[in-house]
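Hi R.,

Here's the chain you asked about this morning:
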Amino acid sequence: MSRPERESASAAASARVRLDKWLWAARFYRTRSLAAQAIDAGQVRLNEERAKPAHPVRAGDTVTVRRHGLAWVVAVAAVSDRRGGAPEAAKLYAETAASATEREEELLRRRAATP
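And the predicted structure, written out as tokens:
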């Protein structure tokens, strides 16, 4: 395999990452094992379908994460298998406007219901 072929093969391999690794790198879960448990429990959907923890995630995919009664619907902007700081994690996805609005409304309802 020539050098340009190897570089393109490594670029293709880096263009996709396991779902559990991506959730961990994007800081939705503290550990990969917690991310894998959430995926197995059906709390995470990839492109509106259930997936396994090893399913590859690519830029442009839609990921839905449900935690504590709240839901995040995000578009994958970039993939990474390395966990960085919060500013780097925020660059990995873009939350949809509808998702952010629904989540904020649910939080307001919860605060209003608290005595």
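The chain has five helices and seven strands.

Let me know if you need anything else.
M.
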